[in-house]
Amino acid sequence: MLSKRLFDTVDEFDTFPAFVSTLSFDSTPVKTDNLTCVMTSTNIKRSLFTDDDEDSGLGMDDQVNFISSLQKSTKRQRADDDNSRCSKRTKVCSDIKAVVTKLEENDDFIADGSRLHTLPTITGKHSDLKSITPQTLADVVNGDYDDVISDYKIIDCRYPYEFEGGHIRRAENIYLHETILHLLQEPTKDKQIVIFHCEFSSERGPKMLRFLRSKDRELNKENYPSLNFPEIYLLDNGYKALFNEQPELCDPVSYRPMLHSDHSEDLRHFRVKSKSWTAGEKRKYARKAMRF
């Protein structure tokens, strides 16, 4: 027997007499108020899906086929999307591998693999760094490379009392690691170079250069091998060598060594200041490692 609840949500049946609800699927036609109802399975289908039959022209079989086709189409689309994403990831991995291979095979490329180094380099004390001579730096300051570089920075990693006692023109005094982090937030230019040095370019300058490269890689890890500063150099033998060869580039024309007898207190102060920041960074990274 067909329950009357079958028609509770179909407005056109709300005015039917109560006895219609007792009809079976194989009932003969019943006449009531000029309305003839033949309750067959086919009629039930057509009544329940009137809107779909009239608007879309689809019967039940057609609807089933349509839904099945739609589901298959959706699955194919998802598969295509997954394949597309996999293809993109494969391309990215392939591109990264190509860059790494290029950098390994030819260290004349700058760190993002986009072009060759602009300045001539020499084999210095640090084989992992690109070193330049005092004469090359003098050529940069004098404008001999203005046609191939857009800008340059000279980072003097000595302590402030050394810097004040004589430094290269246009040099910036950066002896704290935290200041390097601020440098990485500054706008950069294409074909911009950075040159690091300290008194002898044996410890402070190389350490700061490596710190910049490390933080630059970290900052751009999602866009490898892109870097804010892909072309960086170390001044071979530091400020002392340049002062001996090109004193006219210094302001003032003077050289104050780190171990100057008049600045022993300053030395202790700045050493503690720089080491305390480094120790704080090590503790912070240790806490992160413990959390993860």
* Uncertain stretches: 1-57, 285-292
How much is the average pLDDT? 78
Q: What topology, given as strand order, has the largest sheet?
A: 3-8-7-4-6
Count all strands and give the number: 9
| Helix content class | 40-55%
End-to-end separation in angstroms reads: 65 Å
Q: State the order of secondary-structure elements, H for helix, E for strand.
A: EEHHHEHEHEEHEHEHEH
Strand content: 5-15%
Oligomeric grouping of the chains:
single chain
Number of helices: 9
Give the helix/strand class: alpha/beta
Question: Biggest sheet: strands, sense, closure?
Answer: 5 strands, parallel
Q: Using the alpha-carbon principal axes, give the shape.
A: elongated
Radius of gyration: 39 Å
What's the gist of this structure?
The protein has 292 residues and is an alpha/beta fold.
Overview of this protein structure:
With 292 residues, the protein is an alpha/beta fold. It has helices at residues 41-48, 50-56, 60-105, 134-141, 160-164, 177-184, 204-219, 238-245, 264-291; strands at 30-32, 35-37, 131-132, 151-156, 167-168, 171-173, 192-197, 232-235, 250-251. It has nine helices and nine strands. The strands form three sheets. The protein has a five-stranded parallel β-sheet with strand order 3-8-7-4-6. Strands 1-2 form a two-stranded antiparallel ribbon. A hairpin with a 2-residue loop joins β1 and β2 (35-37). The longest helix has 46 residues, at 60-105. The protein is elongated and about 95 Å long.
